[in-house]
Design goal:
The structure holds 2 protein chains of 2 kinds. Chain A has a single domain, classed as Orthogonal Bundle (Helix Hairpins), CATH 1.10.287. In chain A, 54% of the residues are buried. Helix content of chain A is 80%, strand content 0%. By secondary structure, chain A is mainly alpha-helical. The longest helix of chain B has 25 residues. Chain B contains 6 helices and no strands. The radius of gyration of chain B is 21 Å and the shape is globular. In chain B, helix 2 packs antiparallel against helix 3. Chain B is an all-alpha fold. Classes of the chains: A mainly alpha, B mainly alpha.
Chain lengths: 97, 173
């Protein structure tokens, strides 16, 4: 079942990329990044059935980094909301050239 | 495929995969952040089921506990805290031209996946899964990857301090 798992993983990753590119809500953007991380985890687990448990160890690390990223990212979102009174990324354009 | 799987197994594998992809599509198209988050929870549950079906029971349990139970609850917590739950605001999709470009990128990625799957896979021997599926993960985690494991604890500490500092900044005590 490696090939279908890799197929679903690729499709989920593509959906995550499309979400990041199409949405402007910072929270939904973050969730799309989580979806992409999940797709990569699926690849790790699928290949771990071939190559041993190392893939599963890396999934644990990816989840830890995802948790840290979510905590810091959501704190930044809260800061942005306090400053701009919105999480729409169109409003956050101070650095735009 | 190196091993023949029973029909029921294949059916459930494809079922959970299709539910995951469908939920992901609904997730990126929902306007309300709460609805989107709940569809993402559905995706993560289906992925946990796929992990269990691929004999990664520990990862499946961690997926439900950490991702579905902790990370998504934090997301929902922030959505509720900032009072962003209603969908009646203006749509947050980007302009049609950007959406077209995003569709092209997404289709290219999906096409790449299909092209890669059409190529023959190397026939590696399938690793025999031992009876106890948790202890091999633990052994690798606490011997070969012990340093990385310890460094993640530092990462989590930094993330906690950073999150608290960022969230407290600007609040007059």
């Amino acid at each position: 079942m490696i090939q279908p798992a890799l197929f679903f993983s690729g499709i989920l990753f593509a959906i995550g990329v499309v979400g990041v590119l199409t949405r402007r809500n910072a929270l939904i953007l973050f969730m799309c990044v989580e979806l992409m991380l999940n797709a990569v985890n699926l690849t790790f687990v699928a290949l771990s059935t071939m190559h041993g448990v190392t893939g599963q160890v890396f999934v644990v690390f990816v989840m830890t980094v995802a948790a840290a990223e979510a905590a810091v990212g959501l704190a930044i979102v809260i800061s942005v909301f306090r400053h701009f009174k919105t999480v729409d990324l169109k409003a956050v354009s101070v650095l735009r050239g | 495929m190196p091993v023949d799987y029973p029909l029921l197994y294949s059916f459930h594998f494809y079922l959970f995969g299709v539910i995951a992809v469908g939920s992901a599509l609904l997730f990126v198209t929902r306007k309300s952040p709460v609805a989107a988050a709940l569809w993402l929870v559905n995706v993560m549950f289906c992925l946990a089921a796929l992990y269990v079906m691929m004999d990664a029971h520990f990862i499946g349990a961690i997926q439900v506990l950490v991702y579905t139970g902790a990370i998504m609850v934090v997301f929902l917590f922030v959505i509720m805290l900032l009072n962003l739950g209603h969908a009646d605001g203006p749509a947050d999709f980007r302009s049609p031209s950007t959406r077209m470009a995003a569709a092209v990128v997404g289709l290219a990625l999906a096409g790449e996946t299909l092209a890669l799957l059409a190529a023959p896979m190397p026939r590696l021997p399938v690793v025999e899964v031992p009876e106890n599926v948790v202890s091999p993960v633990a052994r690798a985690l606490f011997t070969d990857y012990l340093l990385a494991f310890e460094i993640t604890s530092v990462l989590l500490l930094v993330a906690i301090i950073g999150a608290v500092t960022l969230a407290k900044r600007g609040v007059k005590a």
